[in-house]
Specification:
single chain, 117 residues, mainly alpha, 4 helices
């Protein structure tokens, strides 16, 4: 895996969980706005909007660099829309990145072994 691809996946992974938390907090604030006098929706809405825009920008970059299929790209987009989807996306991206690093190290070791022989 190229360094730029790994960096793109890492950026998307790092914004996934905070985006999911902000979405859940926005939902809680919406309920509180309707049931109490507490109204934090404008603040949480702005925070969530910024994180959502970052998620979409990083998603496009990761899709382009990782050369995901249409299904994989759509999956990560849908996970960004679901309230708890960001947590699943973060976990899945972490596994994908770790697997790619392991594969790259194995290829590097194989190349060393072939060059030494």
């Amino acid at each position: 895996m190229e360094l730029q691809t790994a960096a793109a996946l890492r950026r998307l992974r790092l914004v996934s969980a905070p985006e999911a938390v902000s979405f859940i907090l926005l939902l809680v604030c919406s309920v509180l706005k309707r049931t109490t006098e507490f109204n934090a929706v404008p603040v949480m809405g702005a925070v969530h909007a910024v994180l959502w825009i970052l998620y979409v920008l990083f998603w496009v970059d990761a899709w382009y660099r990782a050369k995901w299929s249409l299904m994989t790209g759509a999956l990560y987009f849908v996970l960004g829309v679901l309230p708890f989807g960001g947590f699943y996306a973060e976990r899945r991206l972490r596994r994908e990145t770790e697997d790619a690093v392991i594969a790259a190290r194995a290829r590097k070791e194989m190349a060393k072994g072939t060059a030494a022989a």
